Amino acid sequence: MFELILLPLDSSPEAERALPIALDLAGRYQSKILLLSVVDLPEELDDREVKLQQVHERARQLDETVQERLRAQGFVVEARTEEGKTAFVICDVAEETGAGLIVMGSRGLGLTEGGLQNSISDRVINLSPCPVLIVP
Asked: Which of 114, 92, 118, 124 is nearest to 18 (CA)?
């Protein structure tokens, strides 16, 4: 059913809560898992290039750690790190790779006082080319 599950990954508790759900589904459907780290830094940030390298290195270390853990459990897993606006990158990668499902955490910050959708998970739900499972 889901040949490829896309799991956006960062060091947040929300991403950690999404991981076991993604693993359960991957186990049930013998799905491959694609870990995706997205680097999104403002263009006008002082020392942007230095900070960009630091963030890329942290993302690489996180990807490697999680990949090792999942491979040891018998999962087929790959990892990618991309730059850009997080929700757009997630959806672009899902489309490009033919992901059957995106599993991601949510901080529950969806609607602002003015009624505007503001969270990354809300944007992914609205832009995704495939089903999205949001783990609260």
From this structure: 124
Over residues 57-70, the pLDDT tens digits come to: 888 888 888 899 99
User: Which candidate, 128, 99, 118, 106, places its Cα nearest to that of 16?
Assistant: 106
Do 2 and 29 form a contact (C-beta atoms < 8 A)?
Answer: yes
Whole-model pTM over 0.70: yes
User: To which residue do tokens 């059957």 refer?
Assistant: 100
Q: Find all residues with CB under 8 Å of 80, minimum gap 6, and list them.
A: 34, 35, 36, 37, 93
Number of CB atoms found within 10 A of residue 71's CB: 12
Report whether CATH 3.40.50.620 matches the domain 4-135: yes
Burial 96-125 (b: 16+ CB within 10 A, else e): ebebbbbbbbbeeeeeeeeeeeebbbbbbb
Nearest CA to 93 out of 103, 85, 105, 82 is that of 82
How do beta strands 77-83 and 132-135 pair? unpaired
Q: Which residues of the chain have pLDDT under 70?
A: 45, 108-118
